[in-house]
């Protein structure tokens, strides 16, 4: 989205107050002049899934990118969820199904999604052992995509998800979000519309999000401060424990419209920290 999704309206003035000159540009614009920028910040690059290798190749040409290209490569494939699980982070159970592989469907409602995707595109929910899941899996595989199979967390229907946002590795704010699978996409066809609201995370939710961020940085061999932004999406499991659904380190909406007025200022300070 060449001028973002509208969430950063208050961010640009906050950056200007610190002396930054800011402009939007499409990542695939050959005349954008990214190499001359002090810092390039990935925001609403939601068209990358079918062009992931091209997008990653572009990321690697940008001298100063936030978040860095190595982070983008790791985080744009949801196989990272298995790595978080293996690291001991409470995470929604996730099974990878490569093209040509078979899978034993969960004995409860479950979700099938592509490991490379954005904005809930290609995500579908099925009843236990539902026959329609085979067709959906086959369609993903025919497109050359690896699938991720996860048991559906029923709390999504009543509580939705909670997203915790970090700037420079430091917690900033949180918001809840809910979306009905199968609902309509936006007019550009990039994402499903969501209902968003400000939230205060429970202590155990905050702890799991912090653990997920620590684990990711350990796996990537970086410090938390090296991440300009991060968003941890959590849901409640059947036993009420918080589980990581996704850890967004590439181009997530950051919920500025749901946050307190200080959030854009914290983001601007994190940008300054990156350049320092």
From TrEMBL:
Gene3D superfamilies assigned: ATP-grasp fold, B domain
Domain of life of the native organism: Bacteria
Occurrences of domain ATP-grasp (ranges): 81-276
Keywords on record: ATP-binding, Nucleotide-binding
Protein name: ATP-grasp domain-containing protein
Origin species: Amycolatopsis ultiminotia
């Amino acid at each position: 989205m060449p001028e973002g999704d509208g969430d950063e309206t208050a961010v640009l003035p906050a950056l200007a107050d610190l002396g930054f000159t800011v402009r939007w540009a499409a990542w695939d614009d050959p005349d954008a002049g990214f190499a001359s920028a002090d810092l390039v910040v990935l925001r609403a690059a939601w068209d990358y899934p079918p062009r992931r290798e091209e997008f990653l190749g572009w990321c690697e040409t940008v001298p100063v990118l936030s978040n860095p290209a190595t982070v983008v490569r790791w985080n744009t494939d949801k196989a990272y969820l298995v790595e978080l699980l293996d690291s001991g982070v409470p995470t929604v159970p996730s099974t990878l199904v490569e093209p040509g592989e078979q899978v034993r469907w969960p004995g409860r409602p479950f979700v099938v999604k592509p490991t490379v995707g954005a904005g809930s595109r290609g995500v579908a929910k099925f009843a236990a052992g539902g026959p329609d899941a085979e067709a959906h899996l086959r369609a993903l595989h025919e497109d050359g995509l690896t699938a991720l199979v996860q048991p559906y967390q029923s709390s999504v229907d009543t509580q939705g998800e909670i997203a915790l946002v970090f700037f420079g590795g430091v917690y900033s704010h949180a918001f809840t979000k809910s979306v009905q699978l199968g609902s309509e996409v936006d007019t550009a066809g990039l994402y499903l519309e969501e209902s968003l609201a400000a939230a205060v995370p429970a202590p155990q939710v905050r702890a799991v999000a912090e653990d997920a961020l620590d684990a990711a940085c350990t796996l990537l061999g970086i410090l938390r401060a090296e991440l300009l932004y991060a968003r941890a999406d959590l849901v409640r499991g059947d036993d009420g424990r918080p589980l990581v659904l996704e850890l967004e380190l590439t181009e997530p909406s950051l919920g500025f419209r749901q946050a307190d007025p200080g959030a854009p200022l914290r983001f601007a300070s994190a940008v300054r920290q990156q350049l320092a």
